[in-house]
Every structure is written in structure tokens, then in C-alpha cells.
Amino acid sequence: MGAPKRTDRLAAGEKLDPFTFHVTEEFNENFLHSMEDFHPRYVEDHAGRAPIIHAGLLFNFSNLTRSPSFSLPAGVAAIHTHEEAAFLQPAPVGSTLTVSWKITDTYEKRGRLYQVVEALITTETGNQVLRRISTNIYMGEG
After folding, report:
1. CATH number for the segment(s) 7-140
2. Phi and psi angles of residue 118, each rounded to the nearest 5 degrees, phi first
3. Is residue 93 pLDDT above 60, yes or no?
4. Cβ 79 vs Cβ 88: under 8 Å
């Protein structure tokens, strides 16, 4: 089996390996401490529902570099140039989440390669939590 395909060489329709993570109460609280954000929705049950996972944690753990198959050679960097995001529904603390990535477009502009990537976070029951459409440019020699 050969080396995985470099991320900057993926074409529209290709996918990166998904990433799964579990957000415990302690994990969420540690993130809340780092953000200094203790809004009750993140730490208290409300109307019989568990606290929700902080939006910043969802963004952080859905970055392209979290994919186990993300790969760039030394000297090449992915630079984030554009972002669109839609929060589809909250995810309760205690959820196991999976992030999947799909390349939706690639194009060249001013001699540089751009890549558009859709990231989708889902719960273990298949509920969609967050959809991100990110555009990256790849620079450097590799």
C-alpha cells in the first residue's frame, strides 16, 4: 500500500478520513476555561436537556488538519482564506461526534491552487450539528 495522497492534491469529490471524538463534561469544561466563557447553556441542564458543547470546540475539532489522512510535505502550508458555517443544531455534552471532509471544488487563481472543503459534524445518532465550507490556498515548495 502506498503513501496517502497529499491533501493539496485531492480533487473535487475526494474525501479525507473522518475523525471521531467524544466530548465529556470535563473536556467541555476545560475548553470553557480556555475561552473564559461560562454561559449557563454550556454548564447547566436546561429543560431536562444536557448542557451543549461550546461552538468554538466544534470549530477547533473540525479543522481539516484533524483528519487522520491530512498530509502535506515539508515546506507546504495550507492557508485558510474563506469560511462559511452553519450551526444546524446543538450537540449535548456527552456526545460522540464524527467529522467528515469532502473536497467540493478546486481552482487556480493568480497562479495559486485553491481548494474548497466541506466539513460536516454529526452525532452518533446521525444528527447534523455543524457544516463548514472552508477555502484554503496551498503555498510553498514540496
Report:
1. 3.10.129.10
2. -100, 125
3. yes
4. no
Distance CA 21, CA 63 (A): 13
Cell, residue 66: 484533524
Residue-range domain boundaries for the chain: 7-140
Sheet holding 112-123, edge to edge: 15-22, 96-109, 112-123, 128-140, 76-87
Average confidence (pLDDT) over 19-24 = 97
Q: Residue 52 forms beta bridges with which residues? A: 92
- The whole model's pTM is what? 0.90
User: CA of 72: how far to CAs of 3, 47, 65, 136, in Å?
Assistant: 12, 46, 10, 13
Q: For 42-74, b where at least 16 C-beta lie within 10 A, e where not — what string?
A: bbeeeeeebbbbbbebbbebbbbebbeebbbee
Dist. CA 64–CA 132, nearest whole Å: 10
pLDDT at 60: 94
| Grid cell at residue 20 | 471521531
Containing 55, the helix (H) or strand (E) segment is helix 55-60
